[in-house]
Amino acid sequence: MGTITAPEPITTAHLIDSFACGIPALDEWLKRRALKNAVSGASRTFVVCHDGQVVGCYALATGSVERGDAPKKLRRNMPDPIPIMVLGRLAVDRQWQRAGVGRGLLKNAVLRSLSVSRHAGVKALLVHTLSEDAKAFYVRNGFLESPFDPMTLIISLQDAPRCL
């Protein structure tokens, strides 16, 4: 397979046309929205590449979650709403799946979120999963179900480094 680049912000120089993770909505978002969201400030997308071709990506944005919607462990001494980072659209091209790329992207997202938390109030990282397989991936990496939606998972940034 070869080596891939370290995660970096998406630019127009990245080749995305042949990216195919198996979930059309994620493929289309990368191709049609990732750069636009970066320009507008809605989210930041980070990509890893092989020979210039994007083989994995994820997006980060800030957000908040109502205290009652967070796992009990996160609520203590927190304001309402609780400030969070939102991890969105983590996807790996089919040819690179099951090669550790997803876990590497998740680790990078956690590290970036921890960096933000040193400069602004951010308690946790939240992800809205699209499938049971995706949910299992995040649960294996320490994420907990939200009490309001079993497909919404969250991990305290305090706990995150120990889980990766």
Describe the model.
This protein is α+β, with helices and mostly antiparallel strands. The protein has one domain (8-163): Aminopeptidase (3-Layer(aba) Sandwich), CATH 3.40.630. Helix content is 30%, strand content 30%. The protein contains six helices and seven strands, in the order βααββαβαβαββα. The protein has helices at 24-32, 34-40, 72-75, 101-117, 132-140, 160-163, and strands spanning 8-9, 44-50, 53-65, 82-92, 124-128, 144-146, 149-156. Strands 1-2-3-4-5-7-6 form a seven-stranded mixed beta sheet, with helices on both faces. The two termini are 24 Å apart. 33% of the residues are buried. The model has no long low-confidence stretch (mean pLDDT 94).
Topology record:
Blueprint: E1 8-9, H1 24-32, H2 34-40, E2 44-50, E3 53-65, H3 72-75, E4 82-92, H4 101-117, E5 124-128, H5 132-140, E6 144-146, E7 149-156, H6 160-163
Parallel strand pairs: 4-5
Antiparallel strand pairs: 1-2, 2-3, 3-4, 5-7, 6-7
